[in-house]
């Protein structure tokens, strides 16, 4: 197996190209093992060089609502009465720990996304 660390963008692009050629490799074969190692190296490089920021909690909720065809009424068991749901969705009120737990448990929204604080604007 001829694999080297990914240190530059050129190395990264070469690794992506190699992964593409190995996508149909069977598990537990030399090609399959090479694919596993390359994917691990690529993921490490991407985590370091292309970090993803977590979405805004309200955007995460709205995304799940859209994906699952949910309405404000569907969120009431997790957040409270409809006026409370609207306050959350309009950034008028913050999520409580209890709401975060229920949304994570019932909708599968990652808790990390729900806990993230919205960006604050600072006035100098």
Features of this protein?
HTH-type transcriptional regulator / antitoxin HigA; Lambda_DNA-bd_dom_sf; core promoter sequence-specific DNA binding; Antitox_HigA; mainly alpha; 434 Repressor (Amino-terminal Domain)
SS element count, helices:
7
**Biggest pleated-sheet summary:** none
Low-confidence spans: 119-124
Shape: elongated
Number of domains: 2
Kindly report how far apart the N and C termini lie: 57 Å
CATH first level of the largest domain: Mainly Alpha
Annotation, overall tally of beta strands? 0
Q: Percent range for helical residues?
A: 55-70%
- What is the residue-averaged pLDDT? 89
Structural class: mainly alpha
Order of helices and strands: HHHHHHH
CATH fold-type name of the largest domain: 434 Repressor (Amino-terminal Domain)
Could you tell me the strand content as a percent range? under 5%
Corresponding CATH architecture of the largest domain: Orthogonal Bundle
Radius of gyration: 21 Å
């Amino acid at each position: 197996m001829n694999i080297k660390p990914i240190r530059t963008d050129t190395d990264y692009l070469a690794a992506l190209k190699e992964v593409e050629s190995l996508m149909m490799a069977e598990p537990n074969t030399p090609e399959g093992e090479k694919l596993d190692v390359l994917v691990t190296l690529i993921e490490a490089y991407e985590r370091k060089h292309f970090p993803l920021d977590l979405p805004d909690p309200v955007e995460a909720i709205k995304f799940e609502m859209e994906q699952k065809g949910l309405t404000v009424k569907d969120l009431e068991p997790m957040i409270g009465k409809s006026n409370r749901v609207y306050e959350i969705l309009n950034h008028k009120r913050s999520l409580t720990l209890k709401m975060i737990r229920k949304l994570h448990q019932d909708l599968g929204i990652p808790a990390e996304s729900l806990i993230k604080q919205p960006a604050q604007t600072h006035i100098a």
